Protein backbone atom coordinates (compact mmCIF):
# COMPACT_ATOMS: atom_id res chain seq x y z
CA UNK A 1 0.00 0.00 0.00
CA UNK A 2 1.21 3.52 -0.72
CA UNK A 3 1.81 6.02 2.05
CA UNK A 4 -0.49 9.05 1.87
CA UNK A 5 1.99 10.99 4.05
CA UNK A 6 5.70 11.28 3.18
CA UNK A 7 7.87 9.42 5.65
CA UNK A 8 11.49 10.03 6.57
CA UNK A 9 14.00 7.22 6.23
CA UNK A 10 13.94 6.73 10.02
CA UNK A 11 10.14 6.57 10.12
CA UNK A 12 10.02 4.23 7.11
CA UNK A 13 12.36 1.74 8.82
CA UNK A 14 9.82 1.41 11.65
CA UNK A 15 6.74 1.28 9.45
CA UNK A 16 8.22 -1.49 7.29
CA UNK A 17 9.90 -3.48 10.11
CA UNK A 18 9.41 -7.23 10.32
CA UNK A 19 6.55 -8.62 12.40
CA UNK A 20 7.25 -9.03 16.10
CA UNK A 21 7.49 -7.05 19.33
CA UNK A 22 8.65 -3.51 18.62
CA UNK A 23 9.15 -0.61 21.03
CA UNK A 24 9.42 2.80 19.35
CA UNK A 25 11.01 5.19 21.82
CA UNK A 26 9.87 8.49 20.38
CA UNK A 27 10.88 12.05 21.19
CA UNK A 28 8.42 14.92 21.38
CA UNK A 29 7.24 15.99 17.93
CA UNK A 30 8.85 13.04 16.14
CA UNK A 31 5.66 11.86 14.42
CA UNK A 32 4.57 9.08 16.80
CA UNK A 33 0.99 8.92 15.57
CA UNK A 34 2.05 9.11 11.93
CA UNK A 35 4.39 6.14 12.40
CA UNK A 36 1.75 4.13 14.26
CA UNK A 37 -0.99 4.70 11.68
CA UNK A 38 1.32 3.96 8.76
CA UNK A 39 2.52 0.81 10.54
CA UNK A 40 -1.13 -0.28 10.80
CA UNK A 41 -1.49 0.37 7.07
CA UNK A 42 1.46 -1.95 6.31
CA UNK A 43 0.28 -4.62 8.77
CA UNK A 44 -3.13 -4.68 7.10
CA UNK A 45 -1.39 -5.41 3.79
CA UNK A 46 0.27 -8.48 5.35
CA UNK A 47 -2.81 -10.24 6.70
CA UNK A 48 -6.58 -10.50 6.38
CA UNK A 49 -6.94 -10.57 10.16
CA UNK A 50 -7.91 -7.49 12.17
CA UNK A 51 -5.57 -5.01 13.86
CA UNK A 52 -6.20 -3.95 17.47
CA UNK A 53 -5.14 -0.32 18.06
CA UNK A 54 -5.34 0.76 21.70
CA UNK A 55 -5.32 4.41 22.78
CA UNK A 56 -5.83 6.35 26.00
CA UNK A 57 -8.40 8.87 24.77
CA UNK A 58 -11.31 8.65 22.36
CA UNK A 59 -9.89 11.67 20.53
CA UNK A 60 -6.62 9.84 19.81
CA UNK A 61 -8.61 6.91 18.48
CA UNK A 62 -10.62 9.21 16.22
CA UNK A 63 -7.40 10.70 14.84
CA UNK A 64 -6.08 7.24 13.95
CA UNK A 65 -9.38 6.32 12.30
CA UNK A 66 -9.39 9.56 10.27
CA UNK A 67 -5.84 8.94 9.02
CA UNK A 68 -6.79 5.44 7.84
CA UNK A 69 -10.19 6.39 6.42
CA UNK A 70 -9.02 5.87 2.82
CA UNK A 71 -8.59 2.12 3.37
CA UNK A 72 -11.53 0.05 2.16
CA UNK A 73 -13.51 -1.66 4.97
CA UNK A 74 -11.23 -0.09 7.56
CA UNK A 75 -13.92 -0.25 10.29
CA UNK A 76 -14.31 -4.00 9.81
CA UNK A 77 -10.55 -4.58 9.62
CA UNK A 78 -9.55 -2.73 12.79
CA UNK A 79 -10.66 -2.18 16.35
CA UNK A 80 -9.51 1.30 17.34
CA UNK A 81 -10.39 2.47 20.84
CA UNK A 82 -9.39 2.90 24.47
CA UNK A 83 -8.50 0.00 26.76
CA UNK A 84 -11.85 0.52 28.52
CA UNK A 85 -13.69 0.54 25.20
CA UNK A 86 -12.01 -2.72 24.16
CA UNK A 87 -12.89 -4.30 27.51
CA UNK A 88 -16.50 -3.19 27.11
CA UNK A 89 -16.70 -5.00 23.77
CA UNK A 90 -15.19 -8.16 25.31
CA UNK A 91 -17.72 -8.07 28.17
CA UNK A 92 -20.60 -7.53 25.77
CA UNK A 93 -19.62 -10.75 23.98
CA UNK A 94 -18.72 -12.93 26.99
CA UNK A 95 -20.53 -11.46 30.01
CA UNK A 96 -22.47 -14.69 30.62
CA UNK A 97 -19.22 -16.40 31.68
CA UNK A 98 -18.98 -13.89 34.54
CA UNK A 99 -22.58 -14.37 35.63
CA UNK A 100 -24.15 -11.36 33.90
CA UNK A 101 -27.35 -12.13 32.01
CA UNK A 102 -27.18 -8.62 30.50
CA UNK A 103 -24.33 -6.22 29.88
CA UNK A 104 -23.71 -4.59 33.29
CA UNK A 105 -24.25 -0.86 33.65
CA UNK A 106 -21.22 1.31 34.27
CA UNK A 107 -21.15 3.54 37.35
CA UNK A 108 -18.64 6.12 36.17
CA UNK A 109 -19.37 9.06 38.52
CA UNK A 110 -17.25 9.47 41.63
CA UNK A 111 -20.33 10.65 43.56
CA UNK A 112 -22.10 7.37 42.73
CA UNK A 113 -19.17 5.31 43.93
CA UNK A 114 -18.84 7.34 47.14
CA UNK A 115 -22.52 6.71 47.84
CA UNK A 116 -21.94 2.99 47.33
CA UNK A 117 -19.11 3.22 49.86
CA UNK A 118 -21.57 4.78 52.32
CA UNK A 119 -23.99 1.90 51.76
CA UNK A 120 -21.18 -0.65 52.11
CA UNK A 121 -20.21 0.88 55.46
CA UNK A 122 -23.76 0.38 56.74
CA UNK A 123 -23.49 -3.27 55.67
CA UNK A 124 -20.28 -3.63 57.69
CA UNK A 125 -21.57 -3.51 61.31
CA UNK A 126 -18.10 -4.13 62.75
CA UNK A 127 -17.07 -0.73 61.42
CA UNK A 128 -20.36 1.18 61.05
CA UNK A 129 -20.66 1.98 64.76
CA UNK A 130 -17.27 3.69 64.99
CA UNK A 131 -17.90 5.43 61.63
CA UNK A 132 -21.08 7.04 62.97
CA UNK A 133 -19.12 8.50 65.89
CA UNK A 134 -16.80 10.42 63.55
CA UNK A 135 -17.45 14.02 62.51
CA UNK A 136 -18.46 14.80 58.92
CA UNK A 137 -14.91 15.60 57.77
CA UNK A 138 -13.54 12.35 59.19
CA UNK A 139 -16.35 10.40 57.54
CA UNK A 140 -15.74 12.10 54.19
CA UNK A 141 -12.00 11.46 54.41
CA UNK A 142 -12.62 7.80 55.21
CA UNK A 143 -14.98 7.38 52.23
CA UNK A 144 -12.34 8.78 49.91
CA UNK A 145 -9.62 6.60 51.45
CA UNK A 146 -11.85 3.55 51.07
CA UNK A 147 -12.63 4.41 47.45
CA UNK A 148 -8.92 4.95 46.72
CA UNK A 149 -8.11 1.61 48.38
CA UNK A 150 -10.68 -0.19 46.22
CA UNK A 151 -9.47 1.55 43.06
CA UNK A 152 -5.86 0.67 43.93
CA UNK A 153 -6.74 -2.98 44.50
CA UNK A 154 -8.45 -3.12 41.10
CA UNK A 155 -5.50 -1.35 39.50
CA UNK A 156 -3.34 -4.13 40.95
CA UNK A 157 -5.90 -6.64 39.60
CA UNK A 158 -6.79 -7.98 43.03
CA UNK A 159 -10.36 -9.27 43.35
CA UNK A 160 -12.49 -10.19 46.37
CA UNK A 161 -11.00 -13.68 46.66
CA UNK A 162 -7.47 -12.33 47.08
CA UNK A 163 -8.12 -9.16 49.04
CA UNK A 164 -7.43 -10.72 52.47
CA UNK A 165 -3.77 -11.19 51.58
CA UNK A 166 -3.36 -7.47 50.96
CA UNK A 167 -4.27 -6.03 54.35
CA UNK A 168 -4.84 -7.12 57.94
CA UNK A 169 -7.67 -4.60 58.30
CA UNK A 170 -10.73 -6.85 58.37
CA UNK A 171 -13.12 -3.91 58.10
CA UNK A 172 -11.62 -2.69 54.82
CA UNK A 173 -11.74 -6.26 53.46
CA UNK A 174 -15.44 -6.53 54.34
CA UNK A 175 -16.03 -3.07 52.90
CA UNK A 176 -14.44 -4.04 49.57
CA UNK A 177 -16.57 -7.18 49.37
CA UNK A 178 -19.77 -5.31 50.33
CA UNK A 179 -19.04 -2.64 47.70
CA UNK A 180 -18.69 -5.33 45.02
CA UNK A 181 -21.81 -7.16 46.24
CA UNK A 182 -23.87 -3.95 45.97
CA UNK A 183 -22.63 -3.39 42.42
CA UNK A 184 -23.46 -6.98 41.46
CA UNK A 185 -26.94 -6.76 43.01
CA UNK A 186 -27.64 -3.72 40.82
CA UNK A 187 -26.25 -5.38 37.67
CA UNK A 188 -23.49 -2.77 37.61
CA UNK A 189 -19.73 -2.40 37.54
CA UNK A 190 -17.55 0.62 38.15
CA UNK A 191 -15.01 2.00 35.69
CA UNK A 192 -12.08 0.05 37.17
CA UNK A 193 -14.03 -3.21 36.98
CA UNK A 194 -13.93 -3.13 33.18
CA UNK A 195 -10.22 -3.98 33.19
CA UNK A 196 -10.40 -6.26 36.23
CA UNK A 197 -13.28 -8.35 34.87
CA UNK A 198 -11.75 -8.86 31.43
CA UNK A 199 -8.35 -9.68 32.96
CA UNK A 200 -10.08 -12.35 35.05
CA UNK A 201 -11.96 -13.58 32.01
CA UNK A 202 -8.74 -14.07 30.01
CA UNK A 203 -7.08 -15.91 32.90
CA UNK A 204 -10.03 -18.08 33.96
CA UNK A 205 -11.11 -18.91 30.40
CA UNK A 206 -7.93 -19.39 28.32
CA UNK A 207 -9.99 -20.21 25.23
CA UNK A 208 -11.43 -16.68 25.26
CA UNK A 209 -7.93 -15.15 25.32
CA UNK A 210 -6.94 -17.54 22.52
CA UNK A 211 -9.97 -16.43 20.51
CA UNK A 212 -8.76 -12.82 20.61
CA UNK A 213 -5.18 -13.83 19.79
CA UNK A 214 -6.49 -15.55 16.67
CA UNK A 215 -8.75 -12.63 15.80
CA UNK A 216 -5.96 -10.04 15.71
CA UNK A 217 -2.90 -10.11 13.50
CA UNK A 218 -1.22 -7.35 15.53
CA UNK A 219 -1.73 -5.04 18.50
CA UNK A 220 -0.57 -1.40 18.36
CA UNK A 221 -0.48 0.74 21.52
CA UNK A 222 -0.35 4.53 21.13
CA UNK A 223 1.14 6.79 23.87
CA UNK A 224 2.31 3.64 25.67
CA UNK A 225 4.12 5.67 28.34
CA UNK A 226 0.69 6.02 29.98
CA UNK A 227 0.19 2.28 30.56
CA UNK A 228 -0.71 1.26 34.10
CA UNK A 229 -0.46 -2.11 35.81
CA UNK A 230 -3.98 -3.27 34.92
CA UNK A 231 -3.70 -2.29 31.25
CA UNK A 232 -0.27 -3.85 30.76
CA UNK A 233 -1.16 -7.12 32.48
CA UNK A 234 -4.45 -7.31 30.59
CA UNK A 235 -2.40 -7.20 27.39
CA UNK A 236 -0.03 -9.86 28.76
CA UNK A 237 -2.96 -12.09 29.72
CA UNK A 238 -4.34 -11.90 26.19
CA UNK A 239 -0.89 -12.56 24.65
CA UNK A 240 -0.23 -15.48 27.06
CA UNK A 241 3.39 -15.72 25.98
CA UNK A 242 2.32 -16.79 22.48
CA UNK A 243 1.44 -13.53 20.75
CA UNK A 244 4.37 -11.21 19.96
CA UNK A 245 3.26 -9.01 17.06
CA UNK A 246 2.89 -5.96 19.30
CA UNK A 247 3.97 -2.38 18.64
CA UNK A 248 4.30 0.12 21.47
CA UNK A 249 4.97 3.76 20.68
CA UNK A 250 5.67 6.32 23.39
CA UNK A 251 7.87 8.99 24.95
CA UNK A 252 9.03 8.27 28.54
CA UNK A 253 9.23 12.02 29.22
CA UNK A 254 5.54 12.54 28.49
CA UNK A 255 4.03 10.27 31.15
CA UNK A 256 1.61 12.56 33.00
CA UNK A 257 -1.15 10.26 34.28
CA UNK A 258 0.69 9.17 37.42
CA UNK A 259 -2.50 9.68 39.45
CA UNK A 260 -3.96 6.71 37.54
CA UNK A 261 -0.97 4.50 38.34
CA UNK A 262 0.67 4.88 34.94
CA UNK A 263 4.41 4.56 34.48
CA UNK A 264 6.72 4.54 31.45
CA UNK A 265 8.38 1.48 33.01
CA UNK A 266 5.67 -0.80 31.61
CA UNK A 267 6.70 0.27 28.11
CA UNK A 268 10.37 0.98 28.73
CA UNK A 269 11.29 -2.06 30.86
CA UNK A 270 8.50 -4.63 31.32
CA UNK A 271 7.47 -4.86 27.67
CA UNK A 272 11.06 -5.06 26.47
CA UNK A 273 11.81 -7.83 29.00
CA UNK A 274 8.58 -9.84 28.68
CA UNK A 275 8.31 -9.75 24.88
CA UNK A 276 12.02 -9.42 23.94
CA UNK A 277 11.02 -6.29 22.06
CA UNK A 278 13.30 -4.61 19.56
CA UNK A 279 13.93 -0.98 20.52
CA UNK A 280 14.03 1.69 17.82
CA UNK A 281 14.50 5.35 18.68
CA UNK A 282 12.60 8.01 16.77
CA UNK A 283 14.60 11.20 17.19
CA UNK A 284 13.78 13.49 14.27
CA UNK A 285 11.56 16.44 15.06
CA UNK A 286 8.82 17.71 12.79
CA UNK A 287 6.92 19.84 15.23
CA UNK A 288 8.81 21.94 17.75
CA UNK A 289 11.24 24.76 16.98
CA UNK A 290 14.82 24.83 18.22
CA UNK A 291 14.09 27.45 20.90
CA UNK A 292 11.28 25.35 22.42
CA UNK A 293 13.21 22.09 22.37
CA UNK A 294 16.21 23.77 24.00
CA UNK A 295 13.89 25.07 26.73
CA UNK A 296 12.37 21.60 27.20
CA UNK A 297 15.82 20.03 27.45
CA UNK A 298 16.85 22.74 29.90
CA UNK A 299 13.87 21.66 31.99
CA UNK A 300 14.78 17.94 31.80
CA UNK A 301 18.49 17.85 30.86
CA UNK A 302 18.56 14.13 30.16
CA UNK A 303 15.65 14.27 27.72
CA UNK A 304 16.43 12.81 24.31
CA UNK A 305 18.44 14.97 21.93
CA UNK A 306 16.49 15.82 18.80
CA UNK A 307 17.94 16.16 15.31
CA UNK A 308 16.93 17.96 12.12
CA UNK A 309 15.15 20.94 13.66
CA UNK A 310 14.05 23.30 10.89
CA UNK A 311 12.70 26.41 12.66
CA UNK A 312 14.49 28.62 15.19
CA UNK A 313 11.28 29.72 16.93
CA UNK A 314 10.79 31.74 20.13
CA UNK A 315 10.94 30.92 23.82
CA UNK A 316 10.51 33.80 26.28
CA UNK A 317 9.87 33.95 30.01
CA UNK A 318 8.07 37.00 31.44
CA UNK A 319 7.14 38.16 34.92
CA UNK A 320 4.19 40.45 35.64
CA UNK A 321 3.03 42.48 38.63
CA UNK A 322 0.05 40.21 39.40
CA UNK A 323 -2.37 37.78 37.75
CA UNK A 324 -4.60 40.59 36.40
CA UNK A 325 -1.67 42.31 34.70
CA UNK A 326 -0.56 38.89 33.43
CA UNK A 327 -3.97 38.44 31.80
CA UNK A 328 -4.02 41.95 30.30
CA UNK A 329 -0.51 41.55 28.88
CA UNK A 330 -1.40 38.21 27.35
CA UNK A 331 -4.60 39.51 25.71
CA UNK A 332 -2.67 42.39 24.11
CA UNK A 333 0.13 40.06 23.04
CA UNK A 334 -2.40 37.81 21.29
CA UNK A 335 -3.91 40.81 19.50
CA UNK A 336 -0.51 41.93 18.28
CA UNK A 337 0.50 38.45 17.10
CA UNK A 338 -2.69 38.03 15.09
CA UNK A 339 -2.21 41.57 13.79
CA UNK A 340 1.07 40.50 12.13
CA UNK A 341 -1.04 38.32 9.77
CA UNK A 342 2.00 36.33 8.56
CA UNK A 343 5.41 35.20 9.82
CA UNK A 344 8.12 33.00 8.28
CA UNK A 345 8.10 30.68 11.31
CA UNK A 346 4.44 29.73 10.91
CA UNK A 347 2.68 28.23 7.94
CA UNK A 348 -0.40 30.11 6.73
CA UNK A 349 -2.09 33.12 8.25
CA UNK A 350 -1.65 33.93 11.94
CA UNK A 351 -5.06 33.39 13.53
CA UNK A 352 -6.63 32.92 16.96
CA UNK A 353 -7.09 29.22 16.16
CA UNK A 354 -3.31 28.74 16.10
CA UNK A 355 -2.96 29.95 19.70
CA UNK A 356 -3.46 28.03 22.96
CA UNK A 357 -3.11 29.15 26.58
CA UNK A 358 -2.24 26.47 29.12
CA UNK A 359 -2.39 26.47 32.91
CA UNK A 360 -1.93 23.92 35.68
CA UNK A 361 -5.50 24.35 36.97
CA UNK A 362 -8.75 25.67 35.52
CA UNK A 363 -9.33 28.39 38.14
CA UNK A 364 -6.26 30.26 36.85
CA UNK A 365 -8.14 31.22 33.68
CA UNK A 366 -10.69 33.52 35.35
CA UNK A 367 -8.69 36.81 35.02
CA UNK A 368 -7.66 35.85 31.49
CA UNK A 369 -11.22 35.08 30.38
CA UNK A 370 -12.27 38.52 31.61
CA UNK A 371 -9.37 40.16 29.73
CA UNK A 372 -10.21 38.25 26.54
CA UNK A 373 -13.87 39.28 26.82
CA UNK A 374 -12.87 42.92 27.30
CA UNK A 375 -10.61 42.93 24.25
CA UNK A 376 -13.09 40.96 22.12
CA UNK A 377 -10.79 38.00 21.50
CA UNK A 378 -12.79 34.83 20.67
CA UNK A 379 -11.89 31.88 22.87
CA UNK A 380 -13.22 28.62 24.25
CA UNK A 381 -12.34 26.36 27.15
CA UNK A 382 -11.30 22.87 26.10
CA UNK A 383 -13.26 20.38 28.20
CA UNK A 384 -12.08 16.92 29.17
CA UNK A 385 -14.03 14.38 27.11
CA UNK A 386 -16.25 12.12 29.18
CA UNK A 387 -19.72 11.51 30.47
CA UNK A 388 -22.24 14.32 29.99
CA UNK A 389 -22.99 16.37 33.12
CA UNK A 390 -26.39 18.07 33.16
CA UNK A 391 -26.80 21.55 34.66
CA UNK A 392 -30.60 21.85 34.81
CA UNK A 393 -32.45 20.12 37.66
CA UNK A 394 -35.02 18.63 35.27
CA UNK A 395 -32.40 16.98 33.09
CA UNK A 396 -30.66 15.66 36.19
CA UNK A 397 -33.99 13.98 37.01
CA UNK A 398 -34.18 12.78 33.39
CA UNK A 399 -30.72 11.20 33.74
CA UNK A 400 -31.65 9.41 36.99
CA UNK A 401 -34.94 8.18 35.55
CA UNK A 402 -33.23 6.97 32.37
CA UNK A 403 -30.81 4.91 34.45
CA UNK A 404 -33.78 3.31 36.26
CA UNK A 405 -35.62 2.63 33.02
CA UNK A 406 -32.70 0.69 31.54
CA UNK A 407 -31.70 -1.01 34.80
CA UNK A 408 -34.55 -1.87 37.15
CA UNK A 409 -32.02 -3.21 39.71
CA UNK A 410 -30.33 0.19 40.12
CA UNK A 411 -31.35 0.93 43.71
CA UNK A 412 -28.64 3.59 44.12
CA UNK A 413 -30.09 5.95 41.52
CA UNK A 414 -33.65 4.96 42.48
CA UNK A 415 -33.13 6.39 45.97
CA UNK A 416 -31.54 9.51 44.51
CA UNK A 417 -34.43 9.95 42.06
CA UNK A 418 -37.05 9.71 44.80
CA UNK A 419 -35.26 12.44 46.75
CA UNK A 420 -35.21 14.64 43.63
CA UNK A 421 -38.95 14.02 43.16
CA UNK A 422 -39.64 14.78 46.87
CA UNK A 423 -41.09 11.30 47.38
CA UNK A 424 -40.57 8.83 50.21
CA UNK A 425 -38.60 5.64 49.69
CA UNK A 426 -40.40 2.84 47.87
CA UNK A 427 -38.88 -0.60 47.71
CA UNK A 428 -39.96 -1.52 44.19
CA UNK A 429 -37.94 0.17 41.47
CA UNK A 430 -40.83 1.05 39.16
CA UNK A 431 -41.05 4.39 37.37
CA UNK A 432 -44.65 3.97 36.24
CA UNK A 433 -45.84 3.63 39.86
CA UNK A 434 -44.52 7.03 40.94
CA UNK A 435 -45.88 9.25 38.15
CA UNK A 436 -49.25 9.91 39.80
CA UNK A 437 -47.59 10.74 43.12
CA UNK A 438 -45.47 13.57 41.69
CA UNK A 439 -46.96 16.96 42.53
CA UNK A 440 -44.65 19.14 40.44
CA UNK A 441 -46.02 19.19 36.88
CA UNK A 442 -42.64 19.73 35.23
CA UNK A 443 -41.10 16.80 37.11
CA UNK A 444 -44.07 14.60 36.20
CA UNK A 445 -43.71 15.47 32.51
CA UNK A 446 -39.99 14.65 32.49
CA UNK A 447 -40.70 11.21 34.02
CA UNK A 448 -43.42 10.63 31.43
CA UNK A 449 -40.88 11.57 28.75
CA UNK A 450 -38.50 8.86 30.00
CA UNK A 451 -41.32 6.30 30.15
CA UNK A 452 -42.21 7.13 26.55
CA UNK A 453 -38.74 6.27 25.24
CA UNK A 454 -38.53 2.99 23.35
CA UNK A 455 -35.91 0.51 24.59
CA UNK A 456 -34.42 0.36 21.10
CA UNK A 457 -34.23 4.18 21.24
CA UNK A 458 -35.99 4.53 17.87
CA UNK A 459 -38.00 7.53 19.13
CA UNK A 460 -35.28 9.08 21.33
CA UNK A 461 -34.54 12.16 19.23
CA UNK A 462 -38.19 12.73 18.26
CA UNK A 463 -39.46 12.57 21.84
CA UNK A 464 -36.78 14.93 23.18
CA UNK A 465 -37.41 17.48 20.45
CA UNK A 466 -41.15 17.28 21.06
CA UNK A 467 -40.64 17.77 24.79
CA UNK A 468 -38.42 20.78 24.12
CA UNK A 469 -41.06 22.39 21.91
CA UNK A 470 -43.83 21.96 24.49
CA UNK A 471 -42.00 22.57 27.77
CA UNK A 472 -43.52 25.20 30.07
CA UNK A 473 -41.16 26.73 32.59
CA UNK A 474 -41.51 30.11 34.29
CA UNK A 475 -37.91 30.23 35.49
CA UNK A 476 -36.00 31.57 32.46
CA UNK A 477 -32.58 30.55 33.85
CA UNK A 478 -33.71 26.96 34.38
CA UNK A 479 -35.33 26.90 30.94
CA UNK A 480 -32.16 28.21 29.34
CA UNK A 481 -30.09 25.53 31.08
CA UNK A 482 -32.68 22.87 30.16
CA UNK A 483 -32.47 23.77 26.47
CA UNK A 484 -28.68 23.74 26.61
CA UNK A 485 -28.71 20.30 28.26
CA UNK A 486 -31.11 18.85 25.67
CA UNK A 487 -29.11 20.28 22.78
CA UNK A 488 -25.90 18.80 24.17
CA UNK A 489 -27.57 15.44 24.82
CA UNK A 490 -28.80 15.32 21.22
CA UNK A 491 -25.22 15.94 20.01
CA UNK A 492 -24.11 12.93 22.07
CA UNK A 493 -27.03 10.95 20.64
CA UNK A 494 -26.07 11.89 17.08
CA UNK A 495 -22.44 10.83 17.68
CA UNK A 496 -23.65 7.49 19.07
CA UNK A 497 -26.35 6.76 16.48
CA UNK A 498 -24.02 7.23 13.52
CA UNK A 499 -21.72 4.46 14.82
CA UNK A 500 -24.28 1.63 14.91
CA UNK A 501 -27.33 0.31 13.10
CA UNK A 502 -28.73 -1.36 16.24
CA UNK A 503 -29.20 1.40 18.78
CA UNK A 504 -30.51 0.94 22.32
CA UNK A 505 -30.90 3.09 25.41
CA UNK A 506 -28.64 0.71 27.33
CA UNK A 507 -25.79 0.89 24.82
CA UNK A 508 -26.18 4.66 24.51
CA UNK A 509 -25.83 5.15 28.27
CA UNK A 510 -22.74 2.94 28.46
CA UNK A 511 -21.21 4.70 25.45
CA UNK A 512 -21.73 8.04 27.21
CA UNK A 513 -20.21 6.66 30.42
CA UNK A 514 -17.05 5.73 28.50
CA UNK A 515 -16.85 9.13 26.81
CA UNK A 516 -17.40 7.61 23.37
CA UNK A 517 -20.15 10.06 22.40
CA UNK A 518 -18.44 13.35 23.30
CA UNK A 519 -18.28 15.87 20.44
CA UNK A 520 -14.85 15.99 18.85
CA UNK A 521 -15.46 18.95 16.54
CA UNK A 522 -13.14 21.94 16.64
CA UNK A 523 -14.19 25.22 18.18
CA UNK A 524 -13.13 28.66 17.04
CA UNK A 525 -10.90 31.19 18.76
CA UNK A 526 -8.03 30.91 21.22
CA UNK A 527 -7.99 27.58 23.07
CA UNK A 528 -7.80 27.65 26.89
CA UNK A 529 -6.84 24.33 28.43
CA UNK A 530 -5.30 22.66 31.45
CA UNK A 531 -2.09 20.78 30.70
CA UNK A 532 -3.74 17.38 31.25
CA UNK A 533 -6.56 18.12 28.82
CA UNK A 534 -4.15 19.33 26.12
CA UNK A 535 -2.15 16.08 26.05
CA UNK A 536 -1.74 14.87 22.47
CA UNK A 537 -2.46 18.23 20.85
CA UNK A 538 -0.13 20.92 19.55
CA UNK A 539 -0.46 24.56 18.53
CA UNK A 540 1.86 26.89 16.64
CA UNK A 541 1.82 29.41 19.49
CA UNK A 542 1.44 28.53 23.16
CA UNK A 543 1.28 30.65 26.30
CA UNK A 544 1.71 29.04 29.73
CA UNK A 545 0.39 31.21 32.56
CA UNK A 546 0.68 31.00 36.34
CA UNK A 547 4.25 29.73 36.56
CA UNK A 548 4.75 30.82 40.17
CA UNK A 549 5.93 28.27 42.70
CA UNK A 550 3.20 26.27 44.46
CA UNK A 551 0.91 27.02 41.53
CA UNK A 552 3.03 25.07 39.04
CA UNK A 553 4.30 22.85 40.62
CA UNK A 554 1.07 22.49 42.55
CA UNK A 555 1.41 23.17 46.28
CA UNK A 556 0.31 19.59 47.12
CA UNK A 557 3.16 18.19 45.04
CA UNK A 558 5.60 20.60 46.70
CA UNK A 559 4.54 19.29 50.12
CA UNK A 560 4.65 15.64 49.04
CA UNK A 561 7.93 15.87 47.15
CA UNK A 562 9.36 12.75 45.53
CA UNK A 563 7.52 11.24 42.58
CA UNK A 564 4.69 13.81 42.80
CA UNK A 565 7.18 16.62 42.17
CA UNK A 566 8.83 14.64 39.37
CA UNK A 567 5.42 14.20 37.81
CA UNK A 568 4.82 17.96 37.92
CA UNK A 569 8.07 18.53 36.04
CA UNK A 570 6.91 15.97 33.45
CA UNK A 571 3.66 17.91 33.19
CA UNK A 572 5.58 21.10 32.44
CA UNK A 573 7.76 19.30 29.89
CA UNK A 574 4.58 18.17 28.15
CA UNK A 575 3.20 21.73 28.31
CA UNK A 576 6.37 23.11 26.69
CA UNK A 577 6.23 20.58 23.87
CA UNK A 578 2.59 21.41 23.04
CA UNK A 579 4.06 24.37 21.16
CA UNK A 580 5.33 23.96 17.62
CA UNK A 581 6.98 27.34 17.09
CA UNK A 582 6.56 30.07 19.75
CA UNK A 583 6.27 29.65 23.50
CA UNK A 584 5.66 32.43 26.02
CA UNK A 585 5.74 31.62 29.74
CA UNK A 586 4.46 34.06 32.39
CA UNK A 587 4.37 34.27 36.17
CA UNK A 588 2.92 36.90 38.56
CA UNK A 589 5.04 38.36 41.36
CA UNK A 590 1.88 38.76 43.46
CA UNK A 591 -1.23 36.60 43.66
CA UNK A 592 -4.54 37.42 45.34
CA UNK A 593 -5.84 34.59 47.51
CA UNK A 594 -9.56 33.65 47.64
CA UNK A 595 -9.92 35.30 51.07
CA UNK A 596 -8.49 38.61 49.81
CA UNK A 597 -4.87 38.51 50.99
CA UNK A 598 -2.14 39.27 48.47
CA UNK A 599 0.87 36.98 48.60
CA UNK A 600 4.30 37.56 47.19
CA UNK A 601 5.21 34.77 44.80
CA UNK A 602 8.46 33.23 43.62
CA UNK A 603 9.12 31.93 40.14
CA UNK A 604 8.50 28.19 39.72
CA UNK A 605 11.38 26.11 41.02
CA UNK A 606 11.42 24.40 37.63
CA UNK A 607 12.40 27.65 35.90
CA UNK A 608 15.11 28.90 38.27
CA UNK A 609 17.89 27.25 36.26
CA UNK A 610 16.95 29.02 33.04
CA UNK A 611 19.43 31.66 31.86
CA UNK A 612 18.63 35.00 33.56
CA UNK A 613 18.52 36.77 30.20
CA UNK A 614 15.35 34.87 29.39
CA UNK A 615 13.50 36.45 32.31
CA UNK A 616 12.09 39.74 31.00
CA UNK A 617 10.11 42.50 32.67
CA UNK A 618 6.55 42.64 31.39
CA UNK A 619 6.37 44.18 27.95
CA UNK A 620 3.54 44.85 25.57
CA UNK A 621 5.46 45.53 22.37
CA UNK A 622 5.88 42.58 20.01
CA UNK A 623 8.98 42.10 17.95
CA UNK A 624 10.88 39.23 16.37
CA UNK A 625 12.72 37.65 19.28
CA UNK A 626 15.72 35.39 18.66
From TrEMBL:
> Matching Gene3D superfamilies, A to Z?
1.10.10.160, P-loop containing nucleotide triphosphate hydrolases, PCRA, domain 4
EC numbers listed for it are 5.6.2.4
User: Which Pfam families does the entry link to?
Assistant: UvrD-helicase, UvrD_C
- State where ATP binds: 26-33
Q: Which UniProt keywords apply?
A: ATP-binding, DNA-binding, Helicase, Hydrolase, Isomerase, Nucleotide-binding
Tell me a GO biological process for this protein.
Answer: recombinational repair
Residue span(s) of domain UvrD-like helicase C-terminal: 270-536
- UniProt domain UvrD-like helicase ATP-binding: residue ranges: 5-289
* One GO MF term attached to the UniProt entry: DNA binding
InterPro entries associated with the record: DExx_box_DNA_helicase_dom_sf, DNA_helicase_UvrD-like_C, DNA_helicase_UvrD/REP, P-loop_NTPase, UvrD-like_ATP-bd
Q: List the catalysed reactions.
A: ATP + H2O = ADP + phosphate + H(+); Couples ATP hydrolysis with the unwinding of duplex DNA by translocating in the 3'-5' direction
| Similarity comment: family membership | Belongs to the helicase family. UvrD subfamily.
Q: What is this protein called?
A: DNA 3'-5' helicase
Amino acid sequence: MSHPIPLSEQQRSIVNAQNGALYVKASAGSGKTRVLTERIRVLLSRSNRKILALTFTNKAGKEIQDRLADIEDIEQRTFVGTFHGFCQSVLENHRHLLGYAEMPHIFEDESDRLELIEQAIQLTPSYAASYRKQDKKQQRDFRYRALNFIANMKLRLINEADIAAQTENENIILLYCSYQDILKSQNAIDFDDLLLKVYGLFNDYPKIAALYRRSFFAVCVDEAQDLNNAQYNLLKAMANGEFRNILMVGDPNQSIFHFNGSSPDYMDKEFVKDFQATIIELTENYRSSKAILQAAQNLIPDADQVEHIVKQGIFKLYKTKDENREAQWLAQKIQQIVGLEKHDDIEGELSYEKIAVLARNKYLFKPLEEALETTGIPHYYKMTPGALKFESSLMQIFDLALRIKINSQDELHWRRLLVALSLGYEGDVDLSNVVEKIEDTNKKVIIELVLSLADDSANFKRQLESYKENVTLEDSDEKNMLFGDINELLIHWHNYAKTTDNTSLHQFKNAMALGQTAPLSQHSGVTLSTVHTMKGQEFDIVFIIGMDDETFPDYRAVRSGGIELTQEKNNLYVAFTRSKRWLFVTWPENRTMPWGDTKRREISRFLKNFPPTEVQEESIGFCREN
